[in-house]
Amino acid sequence: MAMSRTFPRTRVTVEPEVLSPRGRRGAKLFDDENLDLLSHVLDDWFRIPGTSIRFGIDGIVGLIPGVGDILGGLASCIIVLAAWFRGVPNITVARMVVNVAIEVAVGTIPFVGDVFDIAWKANRRNYKLLEGSLRATKRNTGPDWVFFGVLGVFMLALTMIPVFAIAKLISMMVLAGMRQH
């Protein structure tokens, strides 16, 4: 119940200000309609005439050397942040972060990265993850765990390539040294 207070000499009535809850401020910015529009603008807003190839602002900004992919990655973080605010499971949010990281990392490679950026469409992927997570009555994070498992095996394999190469080099050097004696 709001209480007002009147000051007798000035005849001014002061009423307390009622602030909206902290979590609701800007809630319209993170609704499905706006996030879907943002993902389309970033990833597939334009179409090359006569083809089915679509690209967005993210693909155009990515052409700017040095800062383009970073700016695109920052814009992509809006969808990830919205997912976190809306209660998407942490493993799904982590998968969304990896999608953006892959897009930014590969996007830094001149020309090849720009083509990859247009094909990867991390924002559309992330919006689909957000939408699927919020629509599911039971939160199924199994596919996200499988994704991270495959990513872990891939990273382990990448790590092992130099180890095996060095082992092969050492064995060749040892065998060459044994042949000389």
Secondary-structure map:
Blueprint: E1 5-7, E2 12-14, H1 32-43, E3 46-47, E4 54-55, H2 57-61, H3 68-85, H4 90-107, H5 112-120, H6 122-135, H7 142-180
Antiparallel strand pairs: 1-2, 3-4
Helix pairs in contact: 1-3, 1-6, 3-4, 3-6, 4-5, 4-6
Structural commentary:
It is a single chain. With 181 residues, this protein is mainly alpha-helical. The protein has two domains: 22-140; 141-181. It has seven helices and four strands. It has helices spanning 32-43, 57-61, 68-85, 90-107, 112-120, 122-135, 142-180; strands at residues 5-7, 12-14, 46-47, 54-55. The strands form two sheets. Strands 1-2 form a two-stranded antiparallel ribbon. The protein has a two-stranded antiparallel sheet with strand order 3-4. It starts with a strand and ends with a helix.
Number of helices: 7
| Order of strands across the main sheet | 1-2
State the end-to-end distance: 97 Å
Number of separate domains: 2
Low-confidence parts: 17-22
> Helices and strands: which structural class?
mainly alpha
What general outline do the C-alpha atoms trace? elongated
Q: Which percent range describes the beta-strand content?
A: 5-15%
Helix content: 55-70%
Summarize the structure.
The protein is mainly α and 181 residues long. It contains seven helices and four strands, in the order ββαββαααααα.
Features:
single chain; 181 residues; mainly alpha; 2 domains; two-stranded antiparallel sheet; 7 helices; 64% helix; elongated
